[in-house]
Amino acid sequence: MSDGEKMTCLKQDIAEAEADYAKASGKVTEAERELRRLETTQRQVKKETQKIQPTTRDLVRAENKVSLGEMSRRMGQPALDRSREEIIEALTAATSGMRVFSMKEVKGLQIFNYDGAMARHFDGRVVKGGEVKTNIEAAMMRRECRGLVVGRSGIVARPMHKFFEEGQVMDTRYDQVANARVLDARQKLDGTMVFGVVHPTERWVELWTRTGPTEPAKGATRFAESGAAGDILGLVECLDIRGLTACFEWVGWQRKIKEVHNDTELVMTQVRHKTSGEYMEWESMKAWAVAHGVRCAEWAGDLVGKTVDEASAMVMGRKDVEGVVVRIQGGGC
Length: 333
Prior knowledge:
The protein is an alpha+beta fold and 333 residues long. It is 41% helix and 20% strand. The chain is elongated.
């Protein structure tokens, strides 16, 4: 090949190389533009994320703030339609490591109770080993240990669960319950809670306190047998046949604690379903009481439908009552 031909070939190679370079440069330029576009988009996304992060944190804080109260209300009363063994196992697990709770046998029945317990023993949020643990289900079971009576076939009697004043436990703090609606409200009496127990096989009928057939309970049973307060024991038996436990307040000179009562009385306060734990509406309870000549707690109907905050303000202005027991969504008191 002559020098002229070689020169022509080199020029062609150079021209092709230049064309390839220009094409490659164009691709590089296009890639750079795409990279800059992606970087701009990324910066915009990051900026928008930073804007909404405070709102997200606030929502998380708010959810955490109300979650315990919401959990207790959504859960409601523990269902105890279980066997004797399953109920005892659940209660034992819920009270594990807490010596203030006990189970004892009385007249062939098991009664669950507490002695020396403080509000923290019933709380749904506990600290163990420096770690905060939330278990509202276990807390609700512990609140049942207020005289719960169990027999061979399951629940024999289920008195009122342990309830609290505003703020005593985490799920009754003001910020947890202030906006909850009052479903039921009854005048609080100052005395000793007693409840009806009907033996499942022997069929005897007695009134017990949360620790069993104590001396005050025996006194209440004798008073009921006298008929001075109506057909108390007949009422207890009628409700028991329907799977319900009748609760009363035993008030009078021999049981006075804070409030002076002129007469010895047994006043019906609540009726509770043994397995579901639900409470009977006041109107129905009143009808049962009237039918048996028994007095029942007064209904504070003007508080029903109000928020807890509104009801609290109304009760604070009253001087003629010792207090009011309210029930809110989920059965909490």
